[in-house]
Give the backbone structure.
Amino acid sequence: MTSTQTPPQPTVAVAPASNDDIIVQVNGLSKFFGSRCAVDNISFAIRQGECVGFLGPNGAGKTTTINMLLGLVEKSGGTMSIMHFDIPGQQQEAKRLIGVVPQTDSLDPDLTVEENLLTYASYFNITGRKARARSADLLQFFALANRRKEIIEHLSGGQRRRLLLARALINEPKLLILDEPTVGLDPQARHLIWERLEILQEQGTTMLLTSHYLDEVEHLSNRVLILDHGKIVAQGVPQQLITQLVGIDVFVIEGTTAELDALEKSFKQCQATTERVNDKLYVYTQEDCSRLESLLKNSRSWLRRPANLEDLFIQLTGRSLRES
Amino acid sequence: MKYLRFRTLWLRNSRVWRKHIMATLIGNLGQPLLFLLAMGYGLGREMQTIDGLTYLQFLAPGLVTSSVMYSAAFETTYGSYTRLSMQKTYEAILMTPLGITDIALGEIFWGASKGLLSAIIMLAMLPLFGVWPSVWTLALLPVLFMSGVFFAAFGLIMTALAGSYEFFNYFISLILTPLFLFSGIFFPLKTIAPLSRIFFELLPLTPIVTLSRMFCYGQFHEPWLLKIAGSLLLTLFTCWLSVIFLRKRLIQ
Ligand SMILES: Nc1ncnc2c1ncn2[C@@H]1O[C@H](COP(=O)(O)OP(=O)(O)OP(=O)(O)O)[C@@H](O)[C@H]1O
Ligand SMILES: [Mg+2]
């Protein structure tokens, strides 16, 4: 895979942020499906070169928001613009500059791997030698060059996902919208995709990424938007949000109810919040509480780890399963 | 250029079609040719001439139009519905600069092209049955293409309304088959009582069948321009409707 490192487009320097750098602007966006509110008056902006992680439980409204940005779902209220093109008014112009990896696979099963890319290129009015060169570069970049003539059905899940990404890049997009790009992939395939996305980021491609793999989001995003029940419940730099809203460290302690009751009290000596889930005690510390570790000598099992995005996510959106 | 964007979808479909060229041609041509053989040859030998035409000659141009109807309508029902639902082709296309109108036009012109191709092949085979079309038949080709556009657009409306493939049974049994039987392909409409004849004359396939017969034998005894103009209006209206229905289906 070392031969596939060549990036498919020239490097674009990332300019410092200013108002001209706003790639996506959304104000007061809402969507009702009948009486069900899927997106509830959300506003956000994405700047040139950012990778924004778009998070939320199942049914939070992520895909609906993306589909409104693409004109596939009609908005119920609010305004949107992408690269200063009004959406949906000027969506055709905007779409020249956007690449999309949709949540559900939409590769063309009637065509081969290469024909998929060439046909998609033709929709962007990229044809002939230019299209073939671009498609060859992308197949190389995503380690699919030896699958060129394969029919889609013969590809594995990981290969299809990679091809979907290659297809999204066919028009050299300035904005890449990724709706769960690595769902169902093995660690190797995910790492390959992350590497490629990082290369694109270095080249200045702006990204909007949704994923339920929070390590992926933490790894790739400069900023996250957390959506729940169609509303934005938090947004900011992941590490700052985690320290602000969760804490520094997390203790996970197992024990009997009596033991945990006692420990919960002791941890009040330190700046920390606690949570009980079944027979576990979670302690989120807002300062260094390592001095209290001696109390845990007798516990059945415990661990201390840095707070992460998953803690933040659960804190904001709760532990209960969403039935959407 | 912007108005020709739909051609890329036409090209996509033709690329796929070239892979299964034989199957689709036989599928579309088989039925009308068998009808011509069974009815024209089998039945026709025993029958009197109609307006100076043998029954085989009477039947052939009408069956050509029916092959246009079936090819075009099948392409934008079964074909388009597969692309719409299972293959998510339209969803993928809508993420590119192509819009709903481009998709509709691409599909309709593709269906019409397949219809026209069936017609050309059938016309070319008529001499094998001893039927010789006149040179006016060349002028008929655009008319047949227009009829293909009409039935492709009609089929696309059905696709936009369909919840499953079963839905097309209604379209076939309640619309295509009656049109096939009652548009004057098999019997002359002249013999029908004047009042009910108006109804038959207004069926969308009837003027095409009449025009087809007139051009095929170079006998222009009916108001051909009026029939073309009327059909053209109906075709444009149906295309417009198909875009509206497709938009309703694809954009929530
Ligand atoms: N076409 C539709 N008709 C009716 N309701 C819809 C439609 N599409 C989405 N919804 C509803 O809107 C809500 C948001 O769905 P959406 O697909 O945007 O969620 P999501 O955040 O992408 O979830 P996931 O993580 O599962 O992909 C859900 O309650 C869903 O049932
Ligand atoms: Mg989703």
Summary: The first helix of chain A runs from residue 62 to 69.
